[in-house]
Specification:
The chain is α+β, with helices and mostly antiparallel strands. 41% of the residues lie in helices and 28% in strands. The chain has one domain (3-76): Metal Transport, Frataxin, Chain A.
Length: 80
Amino acid sequence: MSTEKIIEKLLRGESDANVRFAELCQVLEAKGFRMRVSGSHHIFTKLGVRERVNLQREGSKAKPYQVKQVRKILAQYKLL
């Protein structure tokens, strides 16, 4: 799925429990975040963004509260 379509899906917020982990990582990397992996934690940072985004898999899906967190940070920093 294209990054734009994934972002549209995120913005709708209708199915936070059905966002694939790989898609969420794809969006963050497309928005300029750098990823590092520490065990099962995928940690994303970006210059100018104070918060760190810490994601963990739940099977092949992202955890719903982490999807909300990513949506909030993207909106807060006007990265959408």
